[in-house]
């Protein structure tokens, strides 16, 4: 439970779970805004996001407290109709499920089952860290981040105290309470958030590094979210076995 809490609270994109899911939009928008600083980059990236209709994304979170290591690995493919293929791996097991036609179908004991009415909403909520538009809940908080232009664009934010960390992630009462609990257990905190965009102002990856310390323990957390194949996934291939899955009674 403690590791699950850390994985949920400390990774930049998962801390936002108290917010509602953002609906992916297909509106066409001119995103040729001139980019010269952090504020204009965020504005241009949000405009460019309106043209992102399909993509593949990954989210990998590695937590190490010196004696134990926990790795959580998510993968998502989402097509223009918002059908999804999701993979989840941790230290002990892996899971694959599809979301399509308002159904959630997962593989269990080598069989595909329709779990829509059983755990469908719970399974879908796990894709939140992988959704493109969800990243802007974090990016909107980076208005003070360092701006760099290279082959694309980079925003870098650092923090070394809970005051700044709360400003970045304490966007809900639930999150603030969780962060306060972490502060009591781990008084020391430092880390960084790096967001990289391509030349079209589309997100390529987000890296969130965090170190928590107390008198006895150091916990390191490294979470990376990536996006590629933007607007290349027209339609996911849903296997026949998935389409024929029986509902859980």
From TrEMBL:
Keywords, in A-Z order: Signal
Protein name in the entry: Lipoprotein
Residues of the signal peptide: 1-20
Provenance organism: Macrococcus equipercicus
Keyword Signal applies: yes
């Amino acid at each position: 439970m403690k590791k699950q809490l850390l994985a949920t609270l400390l990774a930049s994109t998962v801390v936002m779970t108290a917010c509602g899911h953002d609906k992916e939009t297909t509106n066409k928008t001119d995103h040729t805004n001139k980019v010269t600083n952090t504020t204009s980059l965020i504005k241009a990236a949000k405009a460019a996001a309106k043209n992102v209709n399909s993509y593949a994304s990954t989210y990998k979170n590695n937590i190490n407290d010196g004696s134990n290591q926990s790795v959580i690995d998510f993968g998502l493919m989402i097509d223009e109709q918002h059908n999804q293929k999701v993979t989840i791996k941790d230290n002990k097991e892996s899971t694959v499920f599809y979301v399509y036609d308002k159904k959630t179908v997962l593989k269990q004991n080598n069989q595909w089952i329709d779990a829509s009415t059983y755990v469908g909403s719970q399974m879908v909520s796990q894709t939140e860290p992988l959704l493109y538009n969800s990243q802007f809940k974090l990016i909107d908080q980076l208005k003070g981040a360092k701006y760099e232009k290279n082959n694309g664009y980079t925003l870098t934010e650092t923090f070394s105290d809970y005051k700044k960390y709360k400003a970045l992630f304490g966007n809900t009462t639930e999150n603030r309470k969780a962060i306060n609990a972490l502060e009591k257990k781990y008084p020391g905190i430092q880390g960084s958030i790096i967001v990289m965009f391509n030349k079209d102002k589309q997100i390529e990856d987000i890296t969130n590094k965090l170190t928590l310390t107390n008198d006895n323990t150091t916990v390191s957390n490294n979470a990376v979210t990536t996006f590629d194949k933007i607007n290349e996934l027209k339609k996911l291939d849903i296997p026949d076995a998935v389409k024929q899955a029986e509902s859980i009674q």
